TrEMBL record:
Name of the featured protein: Ring-cleaving dioxygenase
Coiled-coil segments: none
Residues in VOC domain copies: 7-131, 152-269
GO molecular function: dioxygenase activity
Keyword Oxidoreductase annotated: yes
Matches recorded under InterPro entries: Extradiol_RC_dioxygenase, Glyas_Bleomycin-R_OHBP_Dase, Glyas_Fos-R_dOase_dom, VOC_core
Upper classification of the organism: Bacteria, Bacillati, Bacillota, Bacilli, Bacillales
PROSITE patterns in UniProt: VOC
Top-level division of the source organism's lineage: Bacteria
Keyword Glycoprotein tagged: no
Keywords, in A-Z order: Dioxygenase, Oxidoreductase
Length: 312
């Protein structure tokens, strides 16, 4: 059975104070907070989702804020860099904007593309690349307008304990195609128009440790539940230990850890983020899974308050 993912569904990371997280991704980067909910395994921790106005798969960056937690170390066995894509000719806007918020950046070239590289307030490694592909993000917030707004993921840079094995999984399990090799990177691409370019660092360094400022997992797209079931069988047929299907309310998920140490998830595009609140009000209220609704008063006292606010 040949399977091909369209690309990245979402990327989930661990950060620190939740208000700092909201201020950076909404206030500085101009993304929409599309869902306030909680970690299914630890409801005393937020799970915050940011994306484009429509909360489309391929645009969703999610976070577990752990206030006062220990700092992780970015290294092998992780997504090392998360790449966002912006419209063509928008990089000059973003360099000026980052400077205005005292966010230091560097510039790099990879596979003939220009990248603006920087870190968020909690140490996550991010970069921006300008490309023609992908729909414009129609969300306007905090001085970021659709002509320059982040469209979603450009892709990611994977730091692997075993790059050759990771490359094999990308091609033979996830269905990405090999694009080329340059310097220390091999590039692969999926069929989607965003979240579709994966670079694998071919040298190995120290193993990463989980904590604030690191990516927890990368999730790939399945179109619906039927496709998801096929993906689970497909992954098992390639000898990977894969979890049972887990209901994450906004998508169903399965997980496996590839040989390079990176935690992979496969998530359904359906049902999406507007089924428990309206499209217009997404992200404005704390939405709890049904099993935690009876604990709402307690959780609202425990979770630190957050406010989405424009920054200047």
């Amino acid at each position: 059975m040949t399977k091909q993912t369209a690309g990245i569904h979402h990327i989930t990371a661990i950060v620190g104070q939740p208000q700092e997280n909201v201020d950076f991704y909404a206030g500085v980067l101009g993304l929409r907070l599309v869902k306030q909910t909680v970690n299914f395994d630890d409801p005393t921790t937020y799970h915050l989702y940011f994306g484009d106005e429509a909360a489309r798969p391929g645009t969703i960056m999610t976070f577990f804020p752990w206030p006062n937690a220990y700092r992780g170390e970015i290294g092998d066995g992780q997504v090392g860099v998360t790449t966002f894509v912006v419209p063509a000719n928008a990089l000059s806007f973003w360099k000026d904007r980052l400077t205005s918020f005292d966010v230091q950046y560097t510039e790099a070239t990879r596979f003939g593309e220009q990248y603006v590289q920087f870190c968020d307030r909690h140490g996550l490694q991010l970069e921006l690349v300008a490309r023609e592909g992908g729909e414009l993000n129609t969300w306007s917030f905090s001085g970021v307008t659709p002509d320059v707004a982040i469209k979603g993921f450009g892709g990611a840079v994977l730091y692997s304990l075993d790059p050759e094995e990771t490359n094999d999984v990308l091609v033979n399990v996830m269905g990405l195609r090999y694009v080329g090799e340059e310097d220390d990177y091999m590039r692969f691409a999926s069929t989607g128009d965003i979240g579709n370019v994966i670079d694998v660092r071919m040298t190995t360094e120290a193993r990463g440790t989980m904590g604030v400022g690191t990516v927890h997992h990368i999730a790939w797209r399945a179109s619906d539940d039927a496709d998801h079931a096929e993906w689970r069988t497909h992954v098992q047929q390639h000898g990977k230990a894969v979890t049972p299907v887990k209901d994450r309310n906004y998508f169903n998920a399965i997980y496996f850890r590839e040989a390079g140490g990176i935690l992979f998830e496969i998530a359904t595009d359906t049902p999406g983020f507007a089924h428990d609140e309206s499209f217009e009000t997404m992200g404005t209220s704390l939405m709890l899974p049904a099993q935690y609704e009876e604990k709402r008063a307690e959780l609202e006292q425990t979770l630190l308050p957050i406010t989405v606010r424009p920054l200047r």
